[in-house]
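F.,

This is the one I mentioned.
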């Protein structure tokens, strides 16, 4: 079931992207020939008054084909773009529309992906179910998991314990605990924890957390819970010393609808900046960033579904922004490649020769499909072997 939910979620992002193109085309008066989710022969097809709506056999990607602009894969329809001059006189064709209208049509898919991500983040903050702020998670002092054979397990720490003191000093943030462990040099530490009675749920309070009406969940163990003092010896690990605990992630909310909207927009911006930095590192050849296929995305998505909706929805928002930004790269075959040709036409004050543009986009698509195939093969091989 987790895999099914992931596939539906990822497919929804494609629908959102293509819906942006479709609605923009209708808004500026272009005639939409076909709206396809997926590529290849149609599995389900509905023929409307002027548009074919279909679900294709290969449900990866999709396209909106408008009159005068290709995007389909069937010979009788894609042949309509070979000679654009024959369409230039038709006022509802792509070629006949002003540059600003073509720009709106091409950019609309990515814009809808950004708006979809914003909507998800807005809903999460409004429901007090956000798990990131500035696209970073914030840990609480509640122990969610104790790693086997760790110093924490040997000392008797348990899931649900709330760390309140380190060597007798009060602690209110997990970052303080992490710094103290890192500076311990492997020497024993005394932790005072509040331990919930069997079956008791952790009480929480919501407090202001920074600006923009942000609220954060704070654990509030009851006064009558037993306090236990344990001596823990941190163990050496890559990057320093560790206790061997995994903390519970803090949830975030908003003071009202307006604050949820502001926070949702800021979170969308933070995701976008994170992806732009990643794209920059990718083009620089950094090993920190690698391309992932739909197989890798599905694998990660399944893990997020199993962690709950508060983890899966930010994952979808991230992929949605990622899809929108990658499509805006000035690469032939992508929306950004078409925007590049629109820009050239605007500067040169005359269109690029149609056959040349078609050839460039065709070469770009061949490269992109080759790259997708390579990454897909690598991810499948990693999964199987």
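My design for it:
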């Amino acid at each position: 079931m987790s895999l099914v939910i992931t596939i539906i979620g990822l497919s929804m992002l494609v629908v959102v992207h293509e819906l942006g193109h479709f609605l923009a085309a209708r808004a500026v008066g272009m005639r939409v020939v076909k709206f396809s989710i997926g590529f290849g022969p149609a599995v389900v097809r509905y023929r409307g008054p002027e548009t074919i709506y279909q679900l294709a056999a290969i449900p990866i990607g999709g396209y909106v084909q408008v009159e005068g602009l290709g995007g389909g894969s069937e010979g009788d329809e894609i042949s309509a773009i070979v000679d654009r001059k024959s369409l230039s006189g038709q006022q509802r064709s792509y070629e006949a529309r002003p540059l600003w209208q073509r720009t709106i049509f091409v950019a609309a898919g990515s814009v809808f992906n950004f708006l979809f991500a914003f909507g998800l983040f807005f809903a999460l903050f409004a429901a007090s179910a956000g798990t990131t702020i500035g696209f970073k998670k914030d840990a609480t002092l509640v122990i969610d998991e104790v790693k086997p054979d760790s110093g924490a397990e040997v000392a008797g720490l348990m899931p649900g314990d709330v760390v309140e003191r380190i060597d007798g000093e009060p602690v209110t943030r997990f970052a303080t605990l992490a710094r103290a462990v890192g500076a311990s040099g492997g020497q024993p530490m005394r932790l005072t924890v509040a331990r919930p009675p069997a079956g008791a749920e952790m009480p929480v309070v919501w407090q202001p957390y920074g600006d923009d009406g942000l609220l954060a969940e704070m654990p509030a163990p009851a006064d009558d819970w037993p306090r236990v003092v344990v001596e823990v010896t941190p163990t050496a690990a890559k990057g320093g010393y560790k206790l061997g605990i995994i903390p519970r992630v803090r949830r975030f909310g908003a003071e009202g609808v307006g604050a949820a909207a502001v926070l949702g927009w800021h979170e969308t911006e933070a995701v976008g900046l994170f992806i732009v930095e990643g794209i920059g590192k990718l083009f620089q050849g950094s090993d920190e960033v690698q391309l992932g296929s739909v197989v890798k995305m599905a694998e990660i998505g399944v893990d997020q579904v199993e962690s709950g909706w508060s983890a899966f929805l930010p994952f979808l928002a991230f992929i949605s922004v990622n899809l929108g930004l990658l499509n805006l790269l000035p690469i032939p075959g992508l929306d950004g490649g078409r925007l590049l040709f629109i820009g050239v036409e605007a500067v040169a004050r005359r269109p690029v020769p149609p056959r040349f543009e078609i050839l460039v986009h065709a070469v770009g698509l061949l490269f992109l499909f080759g790259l997708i195939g390579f990454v897909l093969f690598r991810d499948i091989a990693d999964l199987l072997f």
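The longest strand covers residues 32-47.

Talk soon.
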